[in-house]
Amino acid sequence: MADLDLLHFEQLKLEVQAEYLKNHHPSFDDISKWKGIDIIYFQEDLRRKAKGNISEKSFYTYFKNIPTTKLPRIDMLNLLAIYVDYQSWYDFKKKHLFANEFISEIEKPTEIIIANEDASEKAENIGEIPEENSTKNKDESIVLQLNNTDKQENTEIKTISNHKKNNVVFELYYRFKEYVWLGISVILLSMVLILIFWQRIFATEYTFTFIDADRNTPIKDNLEIKILKDKETPIQFDLSSSIFKYRTQSKTLKLEVTSPFYKQDTIFRNLDLAHTNEIIELEPDVYAQALYYYSTNDISKKREELDKIISKNALIYQVFDNETYGVETLDKQKYIGLVTTPTTSLKNFKMIETKVSPETKKIILIKFKIQPDEITK
After folding, report:
1. pLDDT attached to residue 314
2. Residues 6+ apart with CB under 8 A from 297
3. 235 secondary structure, DSSP code
4. Backbone angles phi and psi of 28, in degrees to 5
5. How many helices (H) and strands (E) would you count in the chain?
6. pLDDT at residue 320, as a whole number
7. What's the confidence (pLDDT) of residue 263?
8. What is the pLDDT of residue 376?
9. pLDDT the model gives residue 264
């Protein structure tokens, strides 16, 4: 019979576990693995539903050991049975009979005593009360039992309260850590964005307007600007107007300006002292402008003027936008004949480069192209 009772107790523990899991979420589903706060919450639920309590020592004795080798007292068995909605331990066994098992009516309890483990343990440690004092101490024992129960409940309530407070503190601590990491991440991201867009955010924009030194008018011809930096490849800009804008954080700036009709010039600027808007004069290349003028305008004695300013041994190149051939070499007379013959193609004449000999003051290099009509439209 004792072995069957132990088997019934294992059944009861499984139902207690299932009942608690309906509304609670302990660290583990298996009741034998509960500890600490899980046991405290279980004790609280047991008091709420079955109006009784078992001590933490009893929990470890009867729930941690699998399988259980000894049966708890009847009051604890009744308490657990009531917790899972049975009238008593007897009622539980009666509804879980094994094959050929018989339960005597003698086992049916006449009065169910709800377990109070802490008070019972203290009573066991004190020992039996003498019979002659039993009547006198009966009320005192009941009062003491109630006081002990109240103290135990107050202690357990304080333990639960302290644990809840600790949970709040831990939650606030982890949230604080999350906010700290979030703040650090935002700061790091901001620093990265500042480094990436530093040039745009903190750089100063400088505007340079190029004018003809002789006419004091804005240059309308194409300009090529190169930003020269130490140990770096030049940065090139092609302008179709006289205004050049450049944004930088550097303290100095070095520009190289070239044009088919103006002499090459290299400009140095200390940006600490420079204005953000500046006008720069470029000296015209008189020979290049004259050559262009005589090559594109039908005036009298144009051939004679071209013959005077072009060297006899000048290198003359015509550049084509053609996949088959790109450059054709012309001699002086052929070039003069080309640009002095009245044709509509001369309106698309474009001077690319000229060079003048310092000794003879004559043009020794001409590079030009005649753009197709479809490109200029």
Report:
1. 92
2. none
3. E
4. -135, 150
5. 12, 11
6. 82
7. 84
8. 41
9. 85
Rounded Cα gap, residues 225 and 206, in angstroms: 14
d(CA 274, CA 252): 9
Q: Give residues with Cβ within 8 angstroms of 129, minimum separation 6.
A: 137, 141
DSSP assigned state of 61:
H
Domains and their CATH numbers in the chain: 2-127 (no CATH), 201-282 (2.60.40.2190), 286-376 (3.10.450)
| Parts of the chain with a pLDDT under 70 | 1-2, 102, 104-171, 174, 197-202, 273-274, 286-287, 290, 293-301, 322-325, 342-346, 373-377
Q: Which two tokens stand for residue 265?
A: 């010039």
Predicted pLDDT of residue 78: 92
Q: According to DSSP H, which parts of the chain are helical?
A: 2-21, 37-50, 56-63, 74-83, 89-94, 117-126, 134-196, 198-202, 286-296, 302-309, 332-340, 373-376
The vertex-31 CA angle with 30 and 35, nearest 5°, equals 110
Buried/exposed 250-281: b ≥16 CB within 10 Å, e otherwise: eeebebebbbbbbeebebebeeeeeeeeeebe
Contact 242, 225 (CB under 8 A): no
Cβ partners under 8 Å of residue 158, min gap 6: none
The pLDDT value recorded for residue 169 is 65
Q: Tell me the C-alpha to C-alpha distance, in Å, between residue 345 and each of 195, 307, 374.
A: 53, 22, 12
DSSP percent split of the chain into helix, strand, coil, nearest 5: 50, 20, 30
Q: Is the pTM of this model over 0.85?
A: no
